[in-house]
Amino acid sequence: MILSALLTSVGINLGLCFLFFTLYSILRKQPGNLRVYAPRLVAERKLKQKAEFNLERLLPSAGWVKRAWQQSEEDLLENSGLDGVVFIRVFTFSLKVFTIAALIGVFILLPINFLGNQLVIDFSDLPNKSLDSFSISNVNNGSKRLWIHFCAAYVFTGAVCYLLYHENKVITLKRIACFYASRPQAHQFTILVRGIPVQAGSSFSESIEQFFTEYHPLTYLSHTVVRQTSKLQQLMNTAEKLYGTVDQLKSEERTSQGPQRLGLFGNKDRHLRTLEKKLEVTEDSMRTEQSSLNKKDVPAAFVSFTSRYGAATATHIQQGVNPTEWVTEQAPEPDDVYWPFFSASYIRIWICKLVVYVASAVLTVLFLLFVVIVQGLTHLEQLESYFPFLKSILTIAFVSQVITGYLPSLILQLFLSFIPPIMKILSSIQGYISMSEIQKSACNKVVWFTIWNIFFANVLSGTALIQVNVFLEPKKIPTLLAEGVPAQASFFISYVVTSGWTSVSSELFQLVNLIWSLPRRVFSKKVADDLKVSSIPYESEVPRILFFVVLGITYFILAPLILPFLLVYFCMGYLIFRNQLLNVYAPKYETGGKYWSIVHNSTIFSLVLMQIIAIGIFGLKDLPLASSLVIPLPILTLLFNDYCRKRFLPILKGYAAECLIKKDREEQNDPRMTEFLENLTVAYQDPALKPSQYSRNTDRQTSPLLQPTEI
Amino acid sequence: MILSALLTSVGINLGLCFLFFTLYSILRKQPGNLRVYAPRLVAERKLKQKAEFNLERLLPSAGWVKRAWQQSEEDLLENSGLDGVVFIRVFTFSLKVFTIAALIGVFILLPINFLGNQLVIDFSDLPNKSLDSFSISNVNNGSKRLWIHFCAAYVFTGAVCYLLYHENKVITLKRIACFYASRPQAHQFTILVRGIPVQAGSSFSESIEQFFTEYHPLTYLSHTVVRQTSKLQQLMNTAEKLYGTVDQLKSEERTSQGPQRLGLFGNKDRHLRTLEKKLEVTEDSMRTEQSSLNKKDVPAAFVSFTSRYGAATATHIQQGVNPTEWVTEQAPEPDDVYWPFFSASYIRIWICKLVVYVASAVLTVLFLLFVVIVQGLTHLEQLESYFPFLKSILTIAFVSQVITGYLPSLILQLFLSFIPPIMKILSSIQGYISMSEIQKSACNKVVWFTIWNIFFANVLSGTALIQVNVFLEPKKIPTLLAEGVPAQASFFISYVVTSGWTSVSSELFQLVNLIWSLPRRVFSKKVADDLKVSSIPYESEVPRILFFVVLGITYFILAPLILPFLLVYFCMGYLIFRNQLLNVYAPKYETGGKYWSIVHNSTIFSLVLMQIIAIGIFGLKDLPLASSLVIPLPILTLLFNDYCRKRFLPILKGYAAECLIKKDREEQNDPRMTEFLENLTVAYQDPALKPSQYSRNTDRQTSPLLQPTEI
């Protein structure tokens, strides 16, 4: 890729970003768009809808930037929970890391790279200059200047580790502080028990009651056996929909009883009869289903305790003699429970897990084929040889620049957007019991999927198409990476500009939601009251951000030109996501910043990757001494990682006895606790059996059958 | 190696075994040898020493075999604890596995191998026939008969997995039963706390008292802060020895006050004065040391609870907010505590661990060089080319047969005997707090050391000297092993015969102890009362047995000729170790069969190794379909292993809440518990500070200083 192609790409994307920003700042002020750009504020009824028109509404303004900037971390914590704070801290952490990187990279490494003459360069023609002349490939082989790159690797690793340690410390302290500040929450007092053994003649419920009253007599409070309600839930949804339609049809019938509609009325009448028939059938099956629910007990239950410490004790110590029975784990928040999948037996969960691992691997491998084809687009000659009829079009300079600079990453981007939902489905099969766990696991899968399928596939497809072979010869990996990674520098710089910049600005603009909202506004007269405020889709956003962190750290030594573009990305991301957290997204549940471990792991991974590539590149550049002297660096980094895992990971996973007991004591004499504990006994009822689910629809006249029966 | 060489070796070793057995059955009946052959019975005063002489004492008899055989598992459990039972069960498990293997191997695989004609064989000369003609190498390439080997691999894997599952189940059930049957023991109620944080102005003791009375008010009983007593311990030992010598000299002085010894007396007098001076100096330093002991508190303490469940709760839940502080673990038995090494900080233990890993790796690599040289002895030509002057000796048939059949494994054996103590030292640096943990860790290290340095070094040195290279190209491993492993079959058959048979029979004969006991009996007139009964050196015995298991499983398909020899080994081992457990060894502490996990792991490892070699060998034998069809086998085996780890490992590691609470309740109303809990508060005092240590020496007049002062 030449410099002018990059500049074209930067130009297009800057233009797009600017366009998005301008449009956003105008559109967000239109009252009709409030449900797109500030659904959270609408839902929380924090907005006064000004109906009168004024000129100001049509002028772009940067007020939102100011508001996003001014928000303090305390506000953020209150608005979006610790998860939101951690999410924003990923940006600040990246900004810190890449500011240091950019200072070293742009002011020290870039000039050195540019002044080398390993690659044949025509100094007169800067715009047509290959981007490779800004990369380490341009430094002369065996040059003493490479020692500066060597020092940069050490300094940068030290800096990143220091920042990582600091960030870990801050986040874990915040997590504990949040715990101390929290009101009593159902999930803190509750555990999930699976693999409940049962004696002949007694039910699961009796078995649980007996076990916990015997072994936890002081702290045991109550339990809720999980039931297989997925079928009932489906039937209920169907019935609810049918009832809604029937209701609407009936009301229309009532209002339009004129002779002019007689023909139509006959049709509608028939339709109404069919629907009512259907509704009856559904209600019948629901009745059958409900009466058989008692037999559909799953050997799993939510068991509540009177204290947090009691619950933690039951989670941490193996309860039954057989470790595959009475398996306990911390319960998720009631809203966070993933009801559809409650794998019954230990073995089944275990098999599901294995199947999901295999499925993820297959998905990853199949995706590679696609990536290889897309990657071919950056090599115009290859494209021409595959599709000869394109030759005439590709000779036009602008077209070829767009294709090499823009199209590949756009296609990749499109297909990658299908991955997070797929991974989420896979994770949900894996046997997690909470949405947040599923989301976190999907997030982790997507991170590694992205790194493998974008980074490695791109880097290695030019040199070795079948990657598996490479990983069977680990000795060659540093050299192979050192050859492949710098060669793809231009692709990734353009990737940052196109994919990175566009993704954050389109996040702000919410194009899809905007388009979706239009037909609804035109056709549906009454504005439905049930506005759904979504939470941040962590499983797609976190991997995207982390991938840029990986790119930045990996290319820090090789092609520092990428760093300024990354800084722009993280600055934009910081502002835009603060704005979105304020206006758009509302957290559904809180994990207390558990996502941070994924960030930590991928940062360590990219550091080690950078160091391995450094080993390879110093070898290639005829500086074997530097190559060997880098070897301690990955070892030290991994030791640092090991220490951090010991020091911080336990805090992210659970809470210490000290915290739990302190918190329990604080509330011991709180009069509100009695009420809380009373509510706790019903907190973990399946929504399919809960009356509260229908409270939303009480404005309609609900069919008596939709009221769940007492079981 | 040819058949006659093997037969020579078998002959020599059978003779040796027979000799040992005969000598043993005679010598054990001599009263003077009781301290060698039945120290346990002597110590427990279970033997009536018959002084009168009769002829029966000089005749060999097999009564000990009968006694060893008749002993029931309950007796064994009572005598040697669960560790002893598990140790013997390793033999019965191996016997079961290799009976199945031998049935398939000798009656099905061996004839098939022998009837092949891949290797050029002269049928007329059986004694000079290479042992390779009994191995799979002799089956014709691409022969359909190899499918029988293929089936054998599947059947054998299934059988071993079934037996392993069964054994795991039996052992875990026994472990729980033993726990229920046990009397209250100090270590069940106690935990070790490390990384105790301390506020300025307060001591560790106050800090612990405060923390546990605050967070475990109901179950906390007492604590004992650990002190750095290694120096005091050393001084005490020196003082004790000096005092003993002075005492003896004085008493001699008193009895022999005649003029005839005047010259000698002057000398002795001077010697006595020097010793007394020394004693004084030592006592002075002891005084200084004791007075400064208060300042030598280590941030570690044994904390006792009033219930087992209380202790378990404190172990399983992270106590302090910072996971590197208040680190808890289950305390070992008081006699099992390894006092000399109490690493203070979390970081220091962590660094020590890393250092030990590196040291073990270095030891392993350095030992390889030595093995390579020894391995050369089986190739006579190589030896002749290295040492030309040996040519004339080596032409003598007997010498060459002894050298190839006997010498290499003897030398290896000798050097290997230094490894367990070295590994034990390394493990003790690793920061374990109990002897049993150190022993178990050393055992594990020695197992892998043996497998690597005997198995892999022998197998690969012929084909690829620098093994590290091999493991960097994992794709080639199956082929490489398939080439190397069958080629070394004859070496390992002779290894089983020489090293295996000799080791068990010499275990019975206790040659070293017998020789050591002779001078003592001759020169020392009074028989010292403090007879030391040792426990089984698991760290050297378990790896030896497991190595034969690995050999047997690995060579099951390749060279079934090894199996009968292994069966003989395990039969002898079973009888002899039962006898030794009865007469010689007494357990010092009990781990409750924790060693079993090492046995399980190495069995799984050898199964997978066997399967990987099978993949390679079917490939080499032009049967690619069989080669691919074996691939699911290691995957299934690893899945089985994963299941077992989940199902049984937790039981080997700790006890479930159910067990602990049941046991606690049982003893709740036991009047003896009050006394037990009172004793518990002093159970974990450092022996250097305990009065009881000197009670042994109360028959001598102890120096008042040797009485530990109250601190």
TrEMBL record, chains A, B:
InterPro entries: Csc1-like, CSC1/OSCA1-like_7TM, CSC1/OSCA1-like_cyt, CSC1/OSCA1-like_N. Its main location: membrane. It is found in: Membrane. Residues 688-711 are annotated as: Disordered. It comes from the Eukaryota. Residues 188-340 form the CSC1/OSCA1-like cytosolic domain. One of its GO terms (cellular component) is plasma membrane. One of its GO terms (molecular function) is calcium-activated cation channel activity. Residues 353-618 form the CSC1/OSCA1-like 7TM region domain. The keyword Metal-binding does not apply. It is a multi-pass membrane protein. Keywords: Calcium, Coiled coil, Ion channel, Ion transport, Membrane, Transmembrane, Transmembrane helix, Transport. Residues 692-711 have a biased composition (Polar residues). Residues 5-167 form the CSC1/OSCA1-like N-terminal transmembrane domain. The chain crosses the membrane at residues 6-27, 97-116, 146-165, 354-374, 446-472, 545-577, 598-619, 625-644. Belongs to the CSC1 (TC 1.A.17) family. This is CSC1-like protein HYP1 isoform X1. It comes from Spinacia oleracea (Spinach). The gene is LOC110790195.
